[in-house]
Amino acid sequence: MMNRIFIVDDDSLTCNLLKTIVKPIFENVETFQHPRAFLTLSLQKKDIIILDLMMPDMDGIEVIRHLAGQKSKASLILISGYDSGVLHSAETLAVSCGLNVISTFTKPINTESLSCFLTSQSNKLAQIERVSTNNDSARPGKFDFIPTEQDLRNAIENKQLILYYQPQVNMKTEALHGAEVLVRWLHPEFGLIFPDKFIALAEQTGLIEQLSEEVIHLAVKQSVHWQKLNRATRLSINISAQNITSLKLPEQLRMLVKEYEIDPSMIVLELTESALMDSEVTSLDIFTRFRLKGFQLSIDDFGTGYSSLSQLHKIPFTELKIDQSFVTNMKQEKESAAIVETCIMLAHKLNMEVVAEGIEDKATWDLLLTEGCDIAQGYYIARPMPAEQFDKWQFKR
Ligand code: G
Ligand code: G
Ligand code: MN
Fold this sequence. Notes:
By secondary structure, the chain is an alpha/beta fold. It is built from 16 helices and 14 strands. The chain has an 8-stranded mixed beta barrel, surrounded by 4 helices. Strand 4, helix 4 and strand 5 (100-106) form a beta-alpha-beta unit. The structure holds guanosine-5'-monophosphate (2 copies) and manganese (II) ion. One guanosine-5'-monophosphate is lined by residues 166, 182, 238, 300-301, 324, 357-360, 377-379, 384.
């Protein structure tokens, strides 16, 4: 079935302009200058809506509320002539109501980037279509696979977890700085399963303890291997809030690095801000002990959580990772650029190194370099990859 695309904007000029951009990509396009008429349609999951926020008889936020009320699964693109701050708030609101916002654009609309975006969206939808029609409908496909606790327990026991490594480079020298360790589940039937499918499950069921133990073990073994080849690589490992409820973790880690004879300063533990929120006293104790044992501590996804500046000061972090969303948007959104700039300054004042993750192009790299960011991570440098491929990548550089 074909995708339908709806343009909802009170301004007829904008409607016509958008229609001209959309038509070559999605044939089935309709414009609405009155949101009420639009809301009488029965929408489907495959529909795409381009919605203006500022309309006289019913504004975009009201339309968002209605769509949320209908539990609409359609894809939403928000546009506005207001500043990007308003657009971003509307996006946050829509997402928190359960709507699927796929992009936002400020007016005047950059026709080229909208056209590019829609083309890639159209390709993606076609691909999903192919996968779902090719799948034997009697059997669950990879995309419907929802693991149970027992599935995950078996996976850990049967050594189905593998590690991918994403390079981090020093921005000034472009030398390799280290790698972030990202777990994957190599399922015998469904193939490669990403952590968004099983980390939350692990956290809810308590399996995160075994999962992290396995991840740390695999990472330490890889580290020994690289060290033997004279290619010692600093490894950043993600730690969940639930991991740090156990007071044993620092000691377990210390024993492990001792057994394998690796330098603890080559291990960076990445904690998200939400991890700091849960049980502040215990976590402060644990974090301090990690540092006393020589490990590095990084605060991950910085800027999205609720940590206060005083926490940042209390906990002995050595590194700050700016959340991807700010990095990805900094090129086109001055608010994100301001946040990135502030993070860099703050980290440096507190004697921490700054990592920018989610760098996808040269323009963003150049901006970050000018602003004095220390370390870069993102698809522009390289995607996460298995160890053997990481070796090849390093060799080719
Ligand atoms: O590439 P990617 O899809 O791997 O990672 C998605 C998310 O999963 C990231 O936010 C990352 O922090 C998390 N993640 C990846 N590996 C691990 C892990 O070993 N432990 C925990 N707790 N989280 C992980
Ligand atoms: O939350 P955490 O920072 O641990 O998650 C890292 C996640 O970011 C992983 O899922 C990784 O695959 C993903 N990632 C790494 N670089 C890029 C990038 O340049 N663009 C995007 N979209 N994702 C990235
Ligand atoms: Mn991380």
